[in-house]
């Protein structure tokens, strides 16, 4: 994404089933997570604004899709992940994480419950092989089957205030109300543009929107029909760069930036996803990978805290830049930026950063070392942007 991807396209990169569509649209391609994906089609700003004001169409086929099924699928996921997946109702989804034994984050995930004995785990592109292998290992001896479905699955997202209208125009008349009534973090199987799809009201932009899981062989047909239906309403194809600035405004973490194997959920302000009170079918405390380490950290003072920064100048902080105490000679580093960019919606620079706890209070004025010059920042609550609520 903006601060973390390179405009290189190694021959070893996997190609999305929509690759030819991106080429035809003149997209700038980039290597990301082992895939060759569109960075932008026209301009980062135009694509970002389209999602905030109308809608954007994203290719997310680089994400990993892993099915976990069987009589003990829920119990297997409860042991493999930090969340309580048994408690998820059929048709709903949950944001969760896979942690190592030491409590560090291996990946953040969205898990959809498709049936009583059937779940879909969606992993980040670069971590998908690790997540698949870990799920297989962690499900050993349990009556559950792990199936990697990434090759056969394409994923596109329609995000923005007109997303519901666009998706609703592509389903059967009897299903229009189903689309309207679909709750956030819920999914339903429908035909979209005549193609069988899992329609999920989830996304990574801070806007309303839908993610459409379809057979890879029908991805191009779906993409073309969504574009045709959405263009009169302002929908544009959008790339990874806009996706990154949108998720930053929404205060959403990105693996490899805010989350990694040096970070626990508590440091990232996501301790709520860790369910230490999980129990098994007999009501006994349920052990899961990383539980002991995470239990020891709950309530403890973390060594660092994730905060939001508003830039008071014009130069944006970028990932890796030092956060310092203003005016100290020599500079005293008290943290580092994980993600940062100018905010197209808000009109000023924003960033996320880890800082030591004593400097983490809202309103604290700090500075970021931007190429040898201190740029003033202030700690503000996240998310930086919330979409307007409709009546």
How would you summarize this macromolecular structure in one to three sentences?
This protein has 391 residues and is α+β, with helices and mostly antiparallel strands. The chain contains 9 helices and 20 strands.
Question: Secondary-structure map with pairings?
Answer:
Layout: E1 14-15, H1 19-24, E2 28-32, E3 35-40, H2 44-53, E4 55-59, E5 64-69, H3 73-80, E6 93-99, E7 105-115, E8 118-123, H4 128-138, E9 145-148, E10 153-159, H5 163-168, H6 176-181, E11 187-192, E12 195-200, E13 209-215, H7 219-230, E14 235-237, H8 240-249, H9 291-297, E15 305-311, E16 322-324, E17 333-342, E18 349-355, E19 365-370, E20 373-380
Parallel strand pairs: 1-3, 4-14
Antiparallel strand pairs: 2-3, 4-10, 5-8, 5-9, 6-7, 7-8, 10-13, 11-12, 12-13, 15-18, 15-20, 16-17, 16-19, 17-18, 19-20
Mean pLDDT: 95
Shape: globular
Supply Rg: 21 Å
User: Could you give the count of β-strands?
Assistant: 20
- Strand sequence of the main sheet, in spatial order? 11-12-13-10-4-14
- Largest sheet descriptor: 6 strands, mixed
> From the helix content, strand content and strand pairing, which structural class follows?
alpha+beta
State the end-to-end distance.
Answer: 34 Å
- Tally of helical segments: 9
Write the element-wise H/E pattern from the N-terminal end onward: EHEEHEEHEEEHEEHHEEEHEHHEEEEEE
* Residue windows where pLDDT falls under 50 for at least 5 positions: 1-10
Strand content: 25-35%
Q: Summarize the amount of helix as a percent range.
A: 10-25%
List keywords for this structure.
six-stranded mixed beta sheet; six-stranded antiparallel barrel; 391 residues; alpha+beta; disordered N terminus; 20 strands; single chain; 9 helices
């Amino acid at each position: 994404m903006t601060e973390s991807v390179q405009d290189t396209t190694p021959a070893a990169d996997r190609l999305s089933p929509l690759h030819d569509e991106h080429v035809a649209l003149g997209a700038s391609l980039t290597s990301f997570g082992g895939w060759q994906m569109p960075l932008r089609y026209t301009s980062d700003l135009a694509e970002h604004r389209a999602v905030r004001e109308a809608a954007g169409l994203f290719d997310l086929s680089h994400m990993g899709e892993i099915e976990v099924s069987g009589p003990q699928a829920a119990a297997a996921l409860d042991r493999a992940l930090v969340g309580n997946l048994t408690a998820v109702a059929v048709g709903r989804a949950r944001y969760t994480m896979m942690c190592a034994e030491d409590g560090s984050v291996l990946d953040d995930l969205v898990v959809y419950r498709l049936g009583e004995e059937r779940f879909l785990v969606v992993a980040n592109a670069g971590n998908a092989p690790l997540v698949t292998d870990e799920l297989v290992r962690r499900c050993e001896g349990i009556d559950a089957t792990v199936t990697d479905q990434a090759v056969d699955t394409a994923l596109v997202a329609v995000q923005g205030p007109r997303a519901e209208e666009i998706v609703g125009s592509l389903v059967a008349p009897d299903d229009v109300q189903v689309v309207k009534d679909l709750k956030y973090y819920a999914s339903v199987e429908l035909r979209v543009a005549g193609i069988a799809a899992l329609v999920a009201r989830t996304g990574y932009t801070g806007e309303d929107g839908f993610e459409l899981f379809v057979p890879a062989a029908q991805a191009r047909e779906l993409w073309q029909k969504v574009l045709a239906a959405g263009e009169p309403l302002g929908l544009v194809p959008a790339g990874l760069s806009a996706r990154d600035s949108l998720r930053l405004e929404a205060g959403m973490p990105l693996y490899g930036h805010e989350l990694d194997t040096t970070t626990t959920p508590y440091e990232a302000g996501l301790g709520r996803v860790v369910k230490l009170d999980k129990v098994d079918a007999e009501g006994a405390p349920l052990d899961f990978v990383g539980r002991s380490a995470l239990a020891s950290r709950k309530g403890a003072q973390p060594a660092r805290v994730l905060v939001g920064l508003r830039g008071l100048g014009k130069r944006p902080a970028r990932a890796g830049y030092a956060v310092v105490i203003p005016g100290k000679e020599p500079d005293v580093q008290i943290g580092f930026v994980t993600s940062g960019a100018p905010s197209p919606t808000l009109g000023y620079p924003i960033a996320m950063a880890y800082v030591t706890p004593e400097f983490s209070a809202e309103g604290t004025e700090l500075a970021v070392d931007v190429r040898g010059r201190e740029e003033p920042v202030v700690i503000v609550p996240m998310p930086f942007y919330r979409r307007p609520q409709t009546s």
